[in-house]
Amino acid sequence: MRPARRVRDPPGAGTIWQVMRASSTLPGSAPRPAAAPPAPAWLRRDLLILLVIGLLAFAVRLQMAVRGGGLLGVGAYDDGVHYAAASSLIHGRLPYRDFLFLQPPAMVLAASPFAELGRLLGDPTGLRAFRIAFQLVGALNAVLVAAVLRRWGLPAAVVGGVSYAVFFPAVYDERTALLEPAGTAGLLLALLLTGRGRRASGRAMLLAGAALGVACGFKIWYVVPALVVVAFARGGRLRVLLGLVVAGAVVYLPFFAASPVRMWQQVVLAQVGRSRNEEYGDFFPRARVLLGVEGIHLDAPVAGVGAELLTVVALVLLGIAAAVALTTPGARVLVALLVATGAVVASSPSFFAHYAALTAPVLCLLTGLTVGRLLHRVRARGLQVAAVVVVLVAVVALNVRHDLDRVDVRPPGAALQAAAARIPGCIASDDPTLLAVMDVLSRDLGRGCPLRPDIGGYSFGPDRQVGLDGEPVSRRTNTAFQRSTTQYLLGADAFIRWRGNTALNADSLARLRQQPVLAQFGTWTIREGLGTSSPGR
């Protein structure tokens, strides 16, 4: 007869069993709660790695902003538009119906808490917090890249996460509050939640769809990668699609119901009707930006090496990475996303440097996956670590020149604020960021002053003019835009004109320069307006 086998306590449950035994020998005594078992060593290691990746990404984005124009710098333009639109909303003005806004409404909603903070504590405080918050979203995106890649091994996660943390197209976009950081977060979260395939829960699939719907609520371009994720969501396509539709409806419908025609014109038709960007009209110039070869002020990330050669090498490596993804179970969605996002950016009439943020996460996911799969057969842990270190050094070296470049412009904030405080009436600007820097945006909205959050956007909307060839005319030759913009600036009690891309022509500039100077700090000039559009006149 065999002796009875001793039943062993479950791993990590010794404390629970001790409490149960103690309570059975001490009747009437209340058992003390069991201490939670410590987290496994691998989990603590992974969490530490994710934390380091997030901190690195945030530090790189913060330094780009601080070393350049500062947290109150000007130059991005769109972030000021978003903040001014949100400030208009909390003062009772609806986008599309009451003012022009060329993007979906999610950004206005996301920026509203910061605009309210600016109303209470001053617009400079609200603007700083707004920008830092989106830098943190960028840090989250780097963490999500690593988390998505973790299923293919730790080397893949580390390389992909660090690559995104320092990849210039991502850093440049996420240094401030633009649309793409939030869209990227929604896309990556959806990839993470659907990555388990048929093992993913129905709730996870719904949440993934909701994340995609919110992403589309920030930028309409994300509809394309969202549909790719839906197509590859095995075992839950309908749930993902349902979450996408419901979340999108929650974001869009309230504003669409208030002004359906204007919203359709501004969000859809105004984008489609833009003219082709001449400088980046062909594929190759855009590829240089998308691959991180071309920066803002530097042509190539490696001194002495031509941008064309680096672009060709990068395209070859990208082809290899795509081939690796096609032969890796569960990774084909990355190739589909590469094709989809690349096609969207390539076919867009206009092109700006921050558009590269649409393809940036996919490129870093493919980079991490390729390194992880190549190292999968390497059994020696030391060789794996050495290879990862070499790759990371190369990635950092290829991005450091661009990442340390000074972008944006630092205005004399304190001087402009002091001068604006002495002006009792409404102040206008061709860059709404300056109104926040001068701490007059919330003040003037509270007074009922007119505000165009996106003054340049009128050339794509109400002031759009088409030439004999059917193409939109440039702003400098657009008489409706020139007249409308100068009337807006002159209609205030004072105005400050700074942005060159507003593209006012010589006649418009001469008309504005006729007005008396109220304050001047170098190239920053506040002039007296006519006050014809100020409340009560």
Strand order in the largest sheet: 1-2-4-3
Mean pLDDT: 90
Q: Compute the separation of the termini in Å.
A: 106 Å
Task: Please provide the count of β strands.
Answer: 4
The secondary-structure element order is HHHHHHHHHHHHHHHHHHEHHHEHEE
Number of domains: 2
Molecular structure report:
With 537 residues, this protein is mainly alpha-helical. The chain folds into 2 domains: 41-403, no CATH class; 413-528, no CATH class. It has 22 helices and 4 strands. It has helices at 14-25, 41-67, 78-90, 106-121, 123-149, 154-166, 168-174, 180-194, 202-218, 223-232, 237-258, 260-272, 283-290, 307-326, 332-347, 360-374, 381-403, 413-421, 432-437, 441-446, 479-491, 506-513, and strands at residues 427-429, 494-496, 517-521, 524-528. It has a 4-stranded mixed β-sheet with strand order 1-2-4-3, sandwiched between helices.
Search tags:
single chain; 537 residues; mainly alpha; 2 domains; four-stranded mixed sheet; disordered N terminus
Sequence-ordered SSE layout with sheet pairings:
Layout lengths: L13 H12 L15 H27 L10 H13 L15 H16 L1 H27 L4 H13 L1 H7 L5 H15 L7 H17 L4 H10 L4 H22 L1 H13 L10 H8 L16 H20 L5 H16 L12 H15 L6 H23 L9 H9 L5 E3 L2 H6 L3 H6 L32 H13 L2 E3 L9 H8 L3 E5 L2 E5 L9
Parallel strand pairs: 1-2
Antiparallel strand pairs: 2-4, 3-4
Task: Summarize it.
The protein is mainly α and 537 residues long.
